[in-house]
Amino acid sequence: MDTLEVAPGVHALTRASTVCYVVEIDDGLLMVDAGLPGFWTDLVALLRRLGRTPRDVSHVLLTHGHFDHLGVARRLEKLGAVVWVGGGDLRIARHPYRYVPGRARLAYPFQHPGSLPHLAAMARAGAFWVGGLDAPRTYDDELPFAAQVRVVPTPGHTDGHVALVLPDRDAVLTGDALVTLDPYTGRRGPRIVARAGTHDAGRARQSLAALADTGARLVLPGHGEVWRDGAEAAALRAAEAGVA
Ligand SMILES: [Zn+2]
């Protein structure tokens, strides 16, 4: 496990090649994505350092409904947090193992042996034991702190995928619309997640323009390292990299 303050009041929790973020806003604490179930101890340890507890996380903002971004969301929901997800991902957020990827996932570790350590680490962090949400809200409703977090639709990886912009940190949280490590191939650098995990690669490519348009300097992906050279350059690199 690794915890890093990547921008003032933005803390990245990394485990099993997967990243989620705790964001301090004016009147509370948010989580952006919720990792895997094994992130719970990391989250509690971070919050303790901040003088907080899991009950202080008032909202969980999901970039999308995949199991590796949903890990501790149900647990926080039970403690009273409101969980938000794109309308197109409502069904998978309730039932995380029912989504249909673009290609058969099982073949991937054979075609891309580089994925094996990442997928094995995800399994150890509880990838097969993620609970669905009871009553998530969708971004069709306005966020109560909309001045501090802007929602940018970025469909493709999933139908309801969104990116989240933090204007006062000059940052965009890209989820799996743009990653710097593809867990399905093990490849690094800005890219779209392989078709094994991406529902519609063509739409995912189109959504790169929306990410570039944010103009954010800091790119905080759902898998891989922080990218500090701007969303526009990251989107360009991802377009060039193609989709595995
Ligand atoms: Zn995903």
Describe the structure.
The protein is α/β, with parallel strands linked by helices. The chain has a single domain, classed as Ribonuclease Z/Hydroxyacylglutathione hydrolase-like (Metallo-beta-lactamase, Chain A), CATH 3.60.15. The protein has helices spanning 40-49, 73-78, 90-94, 108-111, 116-124, 201-213, 231-241; strands at residues 2-7, 10-15, 18-25, 28-32, 57-61, 82-85, 137-138, 150-153, 162-166, 171-175, 179-181, 188-191, 218-221. A seven-stranded mixed β-sheet has the order 1-2-3-4-5-6-7. The chain has a four-stranded mixed β-sheet with strand order 8-9-10-13, covered by helices on one side. The protein has a two-stranded antiparallel ribbon with strand order 11-12. The chain is globular. It starts with a strand and ends with a helix. The structure holds zinc ion (ZN). Zinc ion (ZN) binds at residues 64, 66, 157, 176, 197. Residues 64, 66, 157, 176, 197 line the site of zinc ion (ZN).
Topology:
Layout: E1 2-7, E2 10-15, E3 18-25, E4 28-32, H1 40-49, E5 57-61, H2 73-78, E6 82-85, H3 90-94, H4 108-111, H5 116-124, E7 137-138, E8 150-153, E9 162-166, E10 171-175, E11 179-181, E12 188-191, H6 201-213, E13 218-221, H7 231-241
Parallel strand pairs: 4-5, 5-6, 6-7, 10-13
Antiparallel strand pairs: 1-2, 2-3, 3-4, 8-9, 9-10, 11-12
Helix pairs in contact: 6-7
This protein binds zinc ion (ZN).
Residues 64, 66, 157, 176, 197 line the site of zinc ion.
The CATH class label is: Alpha Beta
Helix-strand topology string: EEEEHEHEHHHEEEEEEHEH
Net shape: globular
What separation lies between the terminal Cα atoms? 28 Å
CATH architecture term: 4-Layer Sandwich
**Main β-sheet description:** 7 strands, mixed
| Average pLDDT reading | 93
Number of helices: 7
Sequence of strands across the biggest β-sheet: 1-2-3-4-5-6-7
**Ligands and ions found:** zinc ion
Q: What's the total count of β strands?
A: 13
Estimate nothing, just give the exact number of structural domains: 1
> Helical percent range?
10-25%
CATH topology: Metallo-beta-lactamase, Chain A
Radius of gyration, CA atoms, in whole angstroms: 16 Å
